[in-house]
Amino acid sequence: MLGKTYDSQVCSIARSLEVIGERWSLLIVRDALFGGATRYSDFQRNLGIATNVLKSRLDGFVEAGIMRRHRYSEQPELHEYLLTEKGRALAPALIALTEWGDRWASDGEPPILYTHSVCGAGITQQVVCAHCGRVDDPAEIRAVIGPGMPPERASRKA
């Protein structure tokens, strides 16, 4: 969706930005995930986004497999946009962004709280160690070369 702006990056963050990094993209996914928006008119009304931009984003999400288009009316032909498993998997990232925004980009109390629909308790996004469960400080996290790194790039980073 962004074009190939990150071709030189061998990084999953850069690849993710190619799909969901444009302005409005995460807000569209947010409204679908947490606001129940499925129809073009829902997104347009909630976001006030230009119609050509909304169409482009929704088409891009369908192409990327984040949403699927489902016809709900024959005359006139109308579609709703439903999140796929791939799209719903963005929930932890959106919750993490919300928590960051509540802490660092807000002057007051959180405007939105996420709760578990089954028990009503609050939802948070946490970074945990797969072995001991603890990550007390982001400085304890380091990035290491993974199996998907091309060998020629891995040798330069080692």
Automatic annotation (TrEMBL):
Matching InterPro entries: HTH_HxlR, WH-like_DNA-bd_sf, WH_DNA-bd_sf
Under PROSITE patterns, the record lists: HTH_HXLR (PS51118)
The protein's GO terms of the molecular function aspect are: DNA binding
Name of the protein in its database record: HxlR family transcriptional regulator
Q: Name one Pfam family in it.
A: HxlR
Q: Which domain of life is it from?
A: Bacteria
Entry annotated with the keyword Transcription regulation: yes
Annotated HTH hxlR-type domain residues: 11-109
Looking up Gene3D superfamilies in the UniProt record yields:
Winged helix-like DNA-binding domain superfamily/Winged helix DNA-binding domain (1.10.10.10)
What keywords are annotated for this sequence in UniProt? DNA-binding, Transcription, Transcription regulation
